[in-house]
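so the lab meeting is tmrw and i was supposed to have these ready like two days ago... anyway. pasting both below. for each one the top line is the aa sequence and the line under it is the structure tokens. i havent really looked at them closely yet so no promises
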Amino acid sequence: MQGRKYLVYDVFTQVRLAGNPLAVVLDSQGLDTAAMQRIAREFNLSETVFVTPSQNPKHKARLRIFAPDHEMPFAGHPTVGTAIALAELQPEDGTDRIFVLEENIGPVRCAISRTDAGVFAEFDLPELPRAAELAVEPEVVGAALGLGPHEIGFENHRVGLWSAGVPYLTVPVSGLEAIGRARLDNPAWAEFSPQLTGGKAANAYLYTRDTVHHDSSFHARMFVAGELSYEDPATGSAAAALTGAIWRFDELAEGPTRIWIEQGMEMGRPSRIRLEIDVDGGKMITARIGGHAVKVAEGLLFS
């Protein structure tokens, strides 16, 4: 019986069994949407990527990204992980590579670097972050996370609703102790969150300036809201949304700014996500997300 090759990578880490796991199904031609959804449910990881030939012959590949219960327009750790997986399938020539991956959100430009520390991938945000009106009081958001009003916000950072393709409630938290205690109360969250985004509940992305590692700029946690609620160990699309809050509240200097985010530590799956934000004339003009990934498994899928 002929199967389809699949790979499993841990993304936003250089260490196996850390970061965010990702399944990549290669040669996905012939699978319809329903079949892809069933396979994603079988892997039961936060995301599974299906690789098909690109529609534009100049592009590397077309990706379809599925959570266990729905298809996603865009996601960060599947983009980084798949970019590294495709690069590692080709002979190493010692040079950087730049290519485009087609996702439902549109073309995503990726760059690969091969270093002594392993393969590193970064991608340009397909959409710059946009802020939406926040029609809920910060203390209500905090209460749904088990936090008091005094633990929500730091410096000039305030709760926001940002999206760079996927909407998130970005929640600044006072410190490491408070963010470590946070827990998502789904019924309380459901009372206000779906109304903010027109139906589906926005996920919660908590961040604080206090960090475990000295070279990190922020410590983060992300809670997926809804029936299949869980915590995510590394979330590129949430980091993409957070670039908007960082640009607004930190008043970044002209030119490029590089930021490292640590995530997943409370879950025992430490992760590191790199942000680069370019500012020109006081406006964010581009932003990039990058990280490492390591292969942990491969096999054949019979479907």
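ok protien two:
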Amino acid sequence: MELNLANKVALVVASSQGIGKAIATQLVKEGSHVMLTSRDGTKLEGVQKELQELQGGRVAYHSADITKAEDIKSLVQATREVFGRIDIVVNNAGGPPGGTFEQFTDEDWQKAFELNLLSYIRVIREVLPELKKEGGRIINLASSSIRQPIPGLILSNTFRLGIVGLTKTIAEELAPYNILVNTVAPGKIGTDRTVFVDQLKANKLGLTREDIEKETKNSIPLKRYGTPEEFAKVVTFLVSDANTYMTGSSFLVDGGMIKSI
């Protein structure tokens, strides 16, 4: 199967660690040129050096706070200037704080909206002029909560579903330009965010995080957490020329954890 990702240009948001970094890594291995971004310039510099050693596509980075519209404009402009075009966008963002409905203020809700939904909207708006020229791919990362809400994560549960609505709607609007848009949702992937969520549940139940991890793994048909690399391969397929007819869909990468149809 030919992916035809060599010399494609990808902007991967929140790519200094975890799932974002794994996606950037896989794309570089396939020969894509990748723009990394996060708020931590020092960490980005380290990831850039690491990925350049793969001797695949070129790698650049640009620090940005994706809750700020001006930072997003600067990020997209920097990608154009460095690589001359944009073919692929992977929207990603760290999860908002955990807690219950009564714990959060209007300010908390506003911050979660800006991070986990408005940032995606702004990035897509900025890259559209590039993608509409010759077509492209947009991937919006979400969470398994799009199918089954996660207790104690009401902010995430709310705005991740907004991502699905956004994806489904613009997939139809952008189809005439050959822009394919999909949502990819991780289940239990071995990242810092998973450690945070497991600890949140452990604290609530008076158990250890290790207890929660063991219990959760037993509930997953594959009996383990996924790796960022496994998740990245799914995203890489969807942004490649191997996918030419799937758009507006939501894909779970969860080892069979979510039981709903």
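from a quick look at the 2nd one: The first strand starts at residue 9 and ends at 12. The CA atoms of residues 110 and 118 lie 10 Å apart. will dig more after coffe
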